[in-house]
Write a structure and sequence with these properties.
Order of helices and strands: HHHEEHEHHEEEEHHHHHHH
Distance between the termini: 76 Å
Largest sheet: 7 strands, mixed
Number of strands: 7
Radius of gyration: 34 Å
Strand content: 5-15%
Structural class: alpha+beta
Shape: rod-shaped
Strand order of the largest sheet: 2-1-3-7-6-5-4
Length: 371
């Protein structure tokens, strides 16, 4: 089917360079707004039903059930009171409603009666002029999706991950939207995973930069040990990235492999592509963690070697200084009867002997690489 073949083209434009989009914030809802509803629309035969005034969720449900089609409601950080009416309208399970309101959920796929509840973690790359021990590399948000026979509800948490552009792209492809809520679920899953791919590329650049600096010979101007803080910070950010990617792999495999009544068979096969991309990102993130471990160990080893070299130099100079210290200590005891004490050439001889011994020790230590 030509529509299905073009499915990837519809959602792929969401893969853009995060470095170009940095610093933008999609203020989907004003803090003073009285409702958490970002958008509410009815889609019939893949086309948005136009109305003279904006639809409320209750009006959208009545219109969809009367004339056919499905409702797509988008919410941003709703309160329990704001979401309770919508949850009651669609008969959403209380446990899923609680998860959607409270947020901070693990990526997952759950089935409640006649609906699917899916949690996605969105990841945004945070631009920074220079990576340091306090730099924020990735910022996470959440998108919860309720998929039913005639409705699709998204609940977003966090300032990033707006779905407005994705909604517009889907509305430009009526054949795809005609497949129902499952087409929207696939588009969001693909959009989120594409975001992971872009973030992984950006994090790879940061890791390459740190790796180059750690192994650069003769690097100057950087305090010793400063790289360890940056590496540890990167490890923490990669761990946050990993928490978003790894748990999502199983839900995507279930959506692509297990027949589900709410997922259109023509759409289901395209979840395999999402699962494949997600598996690639997971491998990349696991590689980041292992690489950062190796870089951190190498950095600590370099610091240990540098400290050993410092101690060798200090020890070498202490050995050299010990010779005149010993001589001065012996001849500073003020005894009347001491060898060469009253000899005319005693002072220059002892002084010359001290210098020769110190030079001999210096030459030996330098030849052995201690100085």
């Amino acid at each position: 089917m030509s529509m299905i073949r073009d499915l990837r083209a519809v959602v792929r434009p969401s893969r853009v360079s995060l470095r170009k989009e940095s610093g933008t914030y999609d203020a989907t809802r004003s803090p003073a707004a009285a409702t958490a509803v970002v958008d509410c629309a009815v889609y019939r035969d893949g086309r948005r039903v136009e109305t003279e005034t904006a639809l409320t969720p209750h009006e959208a449900v009545r219109l969809a059930r009367r004339d056919g089609g499905f409702v797509w409601i988008g919410l941003h950080e709703p309160t329990e009171a704001e979401f309770s009416g919508i949850a009651g309208e669609f008969g959403l399970h209380p446990l899923a409603v609680e998860d959607a309101v409270q947020a901070h959920q693990r990526p997952k796929l759950e089935r409640y009666d006649d609906s699917l509840f899916t949690v996605f973690k969105t990841i945004h790359y945070v631009e920074h002029d220079q990576l340091d021990a306090n730099s924020e590399v990735v910022e996470s948000g959440e998108v919860m999706c309720f998929t039913g026979r005639d409705f699709f509800i998204t609940v977003r948490h966090g300032g990033q991950g707006s779905l407005r552009a994705l909604r517009h792209r889907l509305q430009d492809d009526p054949e795809l939207l005609a497949k129902g809520p499952s087409a929207v679920l696939h588009a969001i899953a693909d959009h989120v995973v594409d975001g992971y791919i872009a973030v992984a590329d950006a994090v790879q650049d940061d890791i390459d930069e740190v790796e180059t600096e750690v192994f650069s010979p003769g690097r100057k101007g950087s305090p010793r040990g400063s790289d360890a803080g940056r590496i540890y910070q990167l490890k923490r950010e990669v761990l946050e990235f990993k928490r978003a990617v790894s748990p999502l792999l199983r839900p995507m495999q279930l959506l692509s492999e297990r027949p589900m009544r709410l997922i259109d068979p023509d759409i289901q096969k395209y979840f395999r592509d999402v699962a494949d991309h997600l598996a690639r990102v997971q491998e990349q993130v696991l590689g980041f963690d292992e690489l950062l471990n190796s870089i951190l160990q190498a950095n600590l080893a370099q610091a240990s070697v540098a400290q050993n070299e410092d101690m060798r130099k200090i020890t070498s100079w202490a050995a050299i200084i010990a010779v005149p210290t010993m001589v001065c200590g012996v001849y500073g005891m003020n005894f009347d009867h001491m060898p060469e004490l009253h000899w005319r050439y005693g002072y220059p001889v002892i002084l010359g002997f001290t210098v020769v011994v110190c030079l001999g020790i210096h030459r030996t230590l330098k030849r052995n690489g201690w100085l």
